[in-house]
């Protein structure tokens, strides 16, 4: 995707692969390049690591016609806002949205009215405006929810949503260490307390990656 503002051009590239976390399909990587104009070009790359979107590359390049890289260019970058805005703008969900049907709905309203009637035309305008306002509210709400989701995924591991790939790895570590303290092995592997490791194991069982337990008997 390419966006232009004044003499600056912004190019965003998004990976074709993604990981599903809750209802969201989160890209495995995103790259954003801003170029042109008097200021140095900037490039940022965000990768999804262990369920958390992280900035892994941030660079400036001064072209011959641009100013040198100065402290002000670094101060202008809010890293948290940058990664949150970038990731949340790319999120897609498995849940259907109204946005794609908006034009169809407005056309259905138009067809239901008498084109020769001023009253019907006024109703058509009012209903269409109301529909557009509702769609805008829903879109803004979806953006806020996506931003909160992104912010939460950047929290320490124990406070994030746990992904399917994470639970599969939990199950793998658990099975490999089944005869020598599997929960402790999970704790050590992921760098979390035993209590959180037990939570991981429970969630892996509920997700079907580990068999259910019988009272007093572990299963892997």
Automatic annotation (TrEMBL):
Domain of life, source organism: Bacteria
Protein name listed in UniProt: Uncharacterized protein
The species this protein was found in: Mycobacterium simiae (Mycobacterium habana)
């Amino acid at each position: 995707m390419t966006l232009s503002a004044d003499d600056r051009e912004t190019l965003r590239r998004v990976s074709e692969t993604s990981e599903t976390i809750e209802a969201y399909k989160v890209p495995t990587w995103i790259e954003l390049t801003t170029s042109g104009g008097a200021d140095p070009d900037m490039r940022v790359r965000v990768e999804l690591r262990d369920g958390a979107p992280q900035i892994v590359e941030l660079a400036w390049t001064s072209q011959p016609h641009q100013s040198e890289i100065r402290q002000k260019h670094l101060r202008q970058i809010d890293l948290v806002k940058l990664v949150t805005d970038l990731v949340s703008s790319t999120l897609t969900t498995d849940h259907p949205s109204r946005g794609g049907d908006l034009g169809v709905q407005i056309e259905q309203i138009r067809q239901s009215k008498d084109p020769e009637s001023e009253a019907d035309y006024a109703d058509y305008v009012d209903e269409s405006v109301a529909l557009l306002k509702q769609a805008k509210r829903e879109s803004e709400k979806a953006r806020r929810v996506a931003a909160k989701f992104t912010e939460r995924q950047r929290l320490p591991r124990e406070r994030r949503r746990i992904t399917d790939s994470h639970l599969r790895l939990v199950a793998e570590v658990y099975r490999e260490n089944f005869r020598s303290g599997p929960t402790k092995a999970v704790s050590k592997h992921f760098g979390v307390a035993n209590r959180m490791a037990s939570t991981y194991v429970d969630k892996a069982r509920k997700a079907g990656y580990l068999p259910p337990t019988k009272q007093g008997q572990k299963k892997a």
